[in-house]
Amino acid sequence: MGFDRLIEKIKETRNPSVVGLDPKLDYVPEFLIQEYMEEDGCSLYSAAKAIFAFNKAIIDEICDIVPAIKPQAAYYEMYGYNGMETLEKTIRYARLKGMFVITDGKRNDIGATMQAYTAAHLGSVQVGENAFSPFGADALTVNGYLGSDGITPLLEVCKEKDKGIFVLVKTSNPSSGELQDQLMDGVPLYARMGDLCEKWGADTIGKYGYSAVGAVVGATYPAQLRELRERLPHTFFLVPGYGAQGGGAEGVAAAFDKNGLGGIVNSSRAVMCAYQKEGCDPRDFAKAARREVLRMRDDITSHIDL
Amino acid sequence: MGFDRLIEKIKETRNPSVVGLDPKLDYVPEFLIQEYMEEDGCSLYSAAKAIFAFNKAIIDEICDIVPAIKPQAAYYEMYGYNGMETLEKTIRYARLKGMFVITDGKRNDIGATMQAYTAAHLGSVQVGENAFSPFGADALTVNGYLGSDGITPLLEVCKEKDKGIFVLVKTSNPSSGELQDQLMDGVPLYARMGDLCEKWGADTIGKYGYSAVGAVVGATYPAQLRELRERLPHTFFLVPGYGAQGGGAEGVAAAFDKNGLGGIVNSSRAVMCAYQKEGCDPRDFAKAARREVLRMRDDITSHIDL
């Protein structure tokens, strides 16, 4: 219940971070791309296969030191249904290796349509006598602009199958304030959205005090991160924007409670492209990813008491 | 440019409506499901194949009398990557039959990630020497909660490839007011979002006066529909909520300008399940869909001057 499963993995690895697997083909080492292109030509099929090989090698290297991965759906959709097959395989493989998987899809809709997204990503689908879990992640990012009708279909499945969601509250991008910072009766939209997270999650609170309805709050806005941590005591935070987007470890420390819990910090490119930054042999890309995960873990945990 | 291609098809068919293809397996006639289950068992693969057969038959029957289809991504994702292949095939087939295709994905993200969604749904993806258009729709619905950083990556492709987007402004669901109706300096959030649509679309205005940045405005809120039609003179409206959700034809008339243009009204279940409502032979499901499309066209056009 709540994010207990994730929190336990965070405690086990002593690492409140998540690796974003957003595998643009540019991030995949050339030797790996060539291997698949030689076999199947320059196609979406071979791109998707190369990406799975890339993901799998990284997962193998990091699964014992990081609690979770966060595949970004856009980078799989980009390679069509072949890419979506790679998303499915990546999720399945990471879960097999004991990792918690957050699909970053920012999905949103209402009623029966939101039920369909829920079934796709967290729940199951009945076909005749058989049930399937198409993508089968542990958590999904969602957008709450449509109000409660867009969220309640998720809550049933969160309860029934011990899953979670992260609602976009204050995003990490430069223009996030255009709407999110505007005041409604003196309260910014992001805080209103945060208040709704507390409400939506109220009867899914787990043993660490956090509900199954988390919030996305960007590392690039440390003041708002701190404010929201105080305002939303039962809401677990997914924090993008560390590293590449400019958020530092001192800033992200604001996402955590006094026990060092309450948040998980994402890093994507810095891990996936660590081999490029290091300038090491591209064949060591997964080991370079591991080194970056450890560096990030030490950077973040030096600022919090976990 | 703008929504000229869509508007021309609307004028050609004298029909400002779009058929939502949201094919839950429950909507597909039993005989068709059986056909595919017998062949391939109860699997996501056979479900996806049955759904494609269902969609194709409906497209064949209605492509000469309706300008556009709107597949809802959730109902394809629900059947995993097999479902996504059916989405791709449905879009391709409808475009081959001359229809305008709006993928209802409500996608949203920022920067490079939004570029990936844009490439997936409207643009193209390079793999080695080859370029692919993975889903290749004409327009995509998007969610603007993240501000301009989430929208500008789409605008380039809209200009370059003559595509369009529809931003969620005032959605048709009962709880849409929870956030969307809240006032910011005396202006409701939905109107703010609408104003951003005018701004984002400013340099993509086509010959009928509408930009490539449309808005989703629900038929269930006719007063806001009227208000937004006046406020957003260059924004083309996609209007869900007609029929099943309770929006009537008099109400949706407010979406249109004095030339009967400026909007397109969606109907999904009433068309897909017309055979159930009629109680006709399920084998005539596509013909029943055609009858419902004609009924809807006459209902809407009796209230506007097209």
Q: Would you write up a description of this structure?
A:
The structure is a homodimer of 306-residue chains. Chain A has helices at 4-13, 30-40, 44-62, 74-77, 80-96, 111-121, 152-161, 177-180, 189-201, 222-231, 249-252, 269-272, 274-278, 285-301, and strands spanning 17-21, 68-71, 100-107, 125-127, 130-132, 139-142, 164-170, 183-184, 187-188, 213-217, 237-239, 263-267. Chain A has 306 residues and is α/β, with parallel strands linked by helices. Chain A has one domain: Alpha-Beta Barrel (TIM Barrel), CATH 3.20.20.70. In chain A, helix 3 (44-62) runs parallel beside helix 5 (80-96) and helix 3 (44-62) packs across helix 14. At the A-B interface, helix 3, helix 4, helix 5, helix 6 and helix 8 of A face helix 3, helix 4, helix 5, helix 6 and helix 8 of B.
What would the keywords be for this entry?
homodimer, 306 residues, alpha/beta, TIM Barrel, eight-stranded parallel beta barrel, 14 helices, 12 strands
CATH topology of chain A: TIM Barrel
> In one word, what is the shape of chain A?
globular
- Tell me the CATH superfamily of chain A: Aldolase class I
Class inferred from helices and paired strands of chain A: alpha/beta
How many individual helices of chain A? Answer: 14
Corresponding CATH architecture of chain A: Alpha-Beta Barrel
